[in-house]
Structure to design on (103 residues):
C-alpha cells in the first residue's frame, strides 16, 4: 500500500489516472449489551479471568488481535473502486472467475 499503485490491480495511480480512492476497512468484535443477573454476580469472576488469561498466553498475538480489532487501508484506481462499490464483500467473485474460464 505505497499509494503509487492500485492495491487491487497494480495500475499506476496519479500517473495513469487523475484520481485514486482510499478504502478503509475496520473489523471489530461487536458485543451486545450485557445483562448481569444475580447468578452472574455470584460466580467466581477472578477464577474465570485467570483461566482466560492462561488461555490467552498460549495463543498467537495476531490471532488474539484478530478476535478484537483489525483495520486495513487500500488505494484503488477508479475501475477497481467501481468494482468494490458494486461488490464490497466479493460475493460475485466466484461467478466472475467461472465466467472468465468459460464454464
Amino acid at each position: 500500500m505505497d499509494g503509487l499503485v492500485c492495491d487491487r490491480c497494480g495500475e499506476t495511480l496519479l500517473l495513469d489516472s487523475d484520481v485514486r480512492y482510499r478504502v478503509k476497512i475496520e473489523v471489530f468484535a461487536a458485543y451486545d449489551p450485557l445483562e448481569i443477573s444475580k447468578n452472574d454476580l455470584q460466580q467466581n469472576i477472578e477464577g474465570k479471568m485467570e483461566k482466560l488469561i492462561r488461555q490467552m498466553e498460549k495463543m498467537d498475538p495476531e490471532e488474539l488481535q484478530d478476535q478484537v480489532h483489525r483495520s486495513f487501508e487500500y488505494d484503488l484506481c477508479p475501475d477497481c473502486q467501481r468494482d468494490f462499490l458494486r461488490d464490497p464483500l466479493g460475493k460475485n467473485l466466484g461467478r466472475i472467475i467461472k465466467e472468465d474460464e468459460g464454464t
Observations:
- The two ends are 34 Å apart (CA to CA).
- Strands lie at 21-28, 69-76.
- The chain has a mean pLDDT of 85.
- The chain has five helices and two strands.
